[in-house]
């Protein structure tokens, strides 16, 4: 089976500074894959190498089996990139922008697909407006349409929802998830971890140019995060429970306790009752990706 993306020992130097350190990653066809990491981890550098916009100092990158350097044209044809920054010609209309991009790939008579893209991204009524007259969120949607004019099997989105309102985020994700269902491979970078958790089947985390973890989303949650118990009581928790407390508001009597296993709930509640505390509220919280991310990023870097 052809891999949608294959990076082998990719390093990138900017002078003495090493932005990527021997990164190897494979993304299979049809995956919805997240690349996460704090600011400056190297995500955009990696995407630029995949897109053929920047050259790896060492190692190789392939898109649908095509090397991004020696087979640039084929690799480029197979990928659609939604860049982090909004880059456009302010004097073109939305439709002209999309027609121009189609021409770049040698596609004529692309109107039906352009109309479909405009409709799916709620841009039909802006088709003849100049790019400079659009709001930031609308421009972002045009960037998405622009990346898809040539129906690429692999779609890469670099923080597509940064600074975008909730409604547009939902529209965008519905559209991208639909493309993924149709078989397109998606690579996404985002700082909204709940988006990655909901959408992506697999996640890689980068830290200072190293891949520190790659796993399926359920495995990451299982291995690194624990369930928690939120309690509200009419007093201070017994001393013996403080080692489990991850968050507390002593004035309100609200506490969050880490659960190593679900059976801990029983003993926690018993200890509270033994201390004469009245339990006013109690709920179990599921682990989330934010907790996993914080734990992994706090670990040692190679
Ligand atoms: N052209 C460049 N010249 C010098 N250093 C660069 C260049 N491009 C990126 N870097 C450095 O490489 C590192 C990785 O940057 P990159 O933009 O890939 O991070 P990122 O993970 O995408 O961050 P963010 O989440 O902020 O977008 C940073 O320390 C950055 O300063």
TrEMBL record:
Keywords: ATP-binding, Cell inner membrane, Cell membrane, Membrane, Nucleotide-binding, Transport. InterPro entries: AAA+_ATPase (IPR003593), ABC_transporter-like_ATP-bd (IPR003439), ABC_transporter-like_CS (IPR017871), ABC_transporter_ATP-binding (IPR050763), P-loop_NTPase (IPR027417). Residues 5-233 form the ABC transporter domain. One of its GO terms (molecular function) is ATP binding. The keyword Mitochondrion does not apply. Transmembrane segments: none annotated. The keyword Cell membrane applies. SUPFAM superfamilies: P-loop containing nucleoside triphosphate hydrolases (SSF52540). PANTHER family: ABC TRANSPORTER ATP-BINDING PROTEIN. This is ABC transporter ATP-binding subunit. It comes from Limnobacter litoralis. The lineage of its organism: Bacteria, Pseudomonadati, Pseudomonadota, Betaproteobacteria, Burkholderiales.
């Amino acid at each position: 089976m052809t891999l949608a993306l294959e990076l082998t020992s990719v390093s990138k130097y900017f002078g003495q500074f090493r932005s990527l350190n021997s990164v190897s990653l494979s993304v299979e066809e049809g995956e919805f894959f997240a690349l996460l990491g704090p600011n400056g981890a190297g995500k955009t550098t990696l995407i630029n190498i995949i897109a053929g916009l920047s050259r790896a100092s060492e190692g190789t990158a392939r898109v649908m089996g095509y090397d991004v350097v020696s087979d640039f044209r084929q690799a480029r044809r197979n990928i659609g990139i939604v860049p982090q920054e909004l880059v456009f010609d302010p004097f073109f209309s939305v439709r002209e922008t999309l027609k121009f991009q189609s021409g770049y790939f040698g596609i004529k008579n692309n109107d039906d697909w352009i109309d479909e893209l405009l409709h799916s991204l709620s841009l039909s009524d802006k088709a003849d407006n100049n790019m400079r007259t659009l709001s930031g969120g609308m421009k972002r949607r045009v960037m998405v349409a622009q990346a898809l004019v040539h129906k690429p099997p692999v779609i890469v989105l670099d923080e597509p929802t940064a600074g975008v309102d909730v409604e547009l985020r939902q529209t965008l994700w519905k559209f991208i998830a639909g493309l993924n269902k149709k078989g397109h491979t998606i690579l996404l970078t985002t700082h909204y971890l709940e988006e990655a958790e909901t959408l992506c089947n697999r996640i890689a985390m980068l830290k200072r140019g190293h891949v520190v973890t790659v796993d399926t989303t359920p495995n990451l949650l299982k291995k690194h995060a624990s369930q928690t118990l939120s309690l509200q009581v009419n007093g201070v928790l017994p001393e013996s429970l403080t080692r489990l407390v991850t968050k507390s508001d002593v004035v309100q009597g609200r506490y969050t306790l880490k659960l190593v296993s679900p059976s801990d709930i029983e003993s926690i509640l018993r200890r509270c009752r033994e201390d004469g505390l009245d339990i006013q509220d109690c709920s179990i919280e599921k682990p989330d990706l934010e907790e996993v991310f914080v734990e992994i990023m706090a670990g040692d870097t190679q």
